[in-house]
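Quick one:
INPUT:
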């Protein structure tokens, strides 16, 4: 919670500048992850350079070149482990294959800990609920994964 508060406090002036000075209507930030959406790609590139410069020179933060890029809306946007695309004027979200593999591993680990009496039934249920509600974009995938793991481990 402290890091969330510090992130909000530390970058609030930049948030204000992005929305009010650069006129970015669609802007999302969680901690140090940003998504800016604008119809003009050249303008977005210009704003990106200004933000990058400000982050590095004023806030003393480094921008990760592997995670910082400008893409067209048809390519989609990875944000907080979920991929977002615009299709038929709707935002569609899905879990990338790598993220699904990470989740499968966590589900199997929870089942293993439970079977080896290192995790209580309450803790197992709590983890299960976190998976369901923490990743609301793919509940069907998660439900099937949890059920498959439980069947294989508990049978």
């Amino acid at each position: 919670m402290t890091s969330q508060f510090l992130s909000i406090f530390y970058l609030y002036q930049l948030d204000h500048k992005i929305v009010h000075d650069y006129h970015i209507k669609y802007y999302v930030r969680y901690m140090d992850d940003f998504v800016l959406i604008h119809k003009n790609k050249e303008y977005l590139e210009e704003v990106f350079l200004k933000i990058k410069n400000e982050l590095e020179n004023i806030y003393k933060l480094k921008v990760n070149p592997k995670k910082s890029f400008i893409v067209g809306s048809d390519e989609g946007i990875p944000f907080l482990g979920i991929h977002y695309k615009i299709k038929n004027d709707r935002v569609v979200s899905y879990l990338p294959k790598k993220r699904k593999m990470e989740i499968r591993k966590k589900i199997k680990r929870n089942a293993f800990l439970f079977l080896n009496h290192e995790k209580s039934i309450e803790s197992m249920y709590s983890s299960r609920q976190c998976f369901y509600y923490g990743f609301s974009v793919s509940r069907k995938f998660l439900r099937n994964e949890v059920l498959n793991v439980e069947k294989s481990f508990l049978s």
